[in-house]
TrEMBL record:
InterPro entries: SCP2_sterol-bd_dom, SCP2_sterol-bd_dom_sf. It comes from Marinobacter santoriniensis NKSG1. Residues 8-101 form the SCP2 domain. Pfam families: SCP2. Transmembrane segments: none annotated. This is SCP-2 sterol transfer family protein.
Length: 104
């Protein structure tokens, strides 16, 4: 699965109920591919290729780590602790990803 397909799957598995009242930008810097960002705004989710000017949190990883997290094979917190995933900005928002998207 390509990185673009992984993000399309993520967008399809969006939990709109969990995003009510939120206004966030999750940016994903994929070291061996492209940068993408997801704009979460009051129950909606839009995927964009490229960087955002002011992301709420930026997650930095390679494509294998991304695929593992989205498929549910890799725990995001374990990837973070192992150094496979880095976060810049509001790191606590990264923990919301599991609520906002049905992984696996």
């Amino acid at each position: 699965m390509s990185v673009a397909q992984v993000f399309e799957k993520l967008e399809q598995n969006f939990n709109a109920d969990a995003a009510q009242g939120l206004d966030l930008v999750f940016q994903f810097d994929i070291e061996d591919d492209s940068t993408y960002h997801l704009v979460i705004n009051d129950g909606s989710c839009k995927l964009h290729e490229g960087a955002n000017d002011d992301p709420s949190v930026t997650l930095i990883m390679n494509s294998d780590t991304l695929q593992g997290i989205v498929s549910g094979e890799t725990d995001g917190m374990q990837a973070f602790m192992a150094g496979q995933l880095r976060a810049e900005g509001d790191m606590m928002l990264a923990t919301k990803l599991g609520e906002l998207f049905n992984m696996g």
